Amino acid sequence: MVVNALANGVAFLIFVVDGQVVWRYCLLAMVTCAIGGYSSARFAKMVPQKILRALVVVIGLSMAGWFFWKQ
User: Fold this and answer.
1) What pTM did the predictor assign?
2) Alpha carbons 61 and 10: distance in angstroms, whole number
3) Per residue, what are the HEC states of the chain?
4) pLDDT digits (tens, 9 = 90+) for 10-66
5) Are 26 and 20 spatial neighbours (Cβ–Cβ below 8 Å)?
6) Rounded Cα gap, residues 46 and 23, in angstroms
7) What is the spatial distance between Cα 50 and Cα 70, in angstroms, rounded to a whole number?
8) Alpha-carbon span 66 to 15, nearest angstrom
9) What is the pLDDT of residue 66?
10) In degrees, to the nearest 5, what angle opens at C-alpha 31 toward C-alphas 20 and 61?
11) Cα→Cα distances 2→9, 12, 13, 50, Å
């Protein structure tokens, strides 16, 4: 976990120093991810675990199938 955080931190610094970060998009993504994360967690607590797990599996397999098919 620490190694992963360090690797991501180094990658972040390289992108920032190299000027490859478009900050207006990053800030928008951070705000929307925070809103989505908190609201999704709130709604996920309302759904029974079996249904939620099945939904995650179905969505994941569907996305994988779609990406393999499109390639």
Assistant:
1) 0.50
2) 32
3) CHHHHHHHHHHHHHHHHCCCCCHHHHHHHHHHHHHHHHHHHHHHCCCCHHHHHHHHHHHHHHHHHHHHHHC
4) 999 999 999 998 889 989 999 999 999 999 888 888 989 999 999 999 999 999 999
5) no
6) 35
7) 30
8) 30
9) 95
10) 85
11) 10, 15, 16, 32
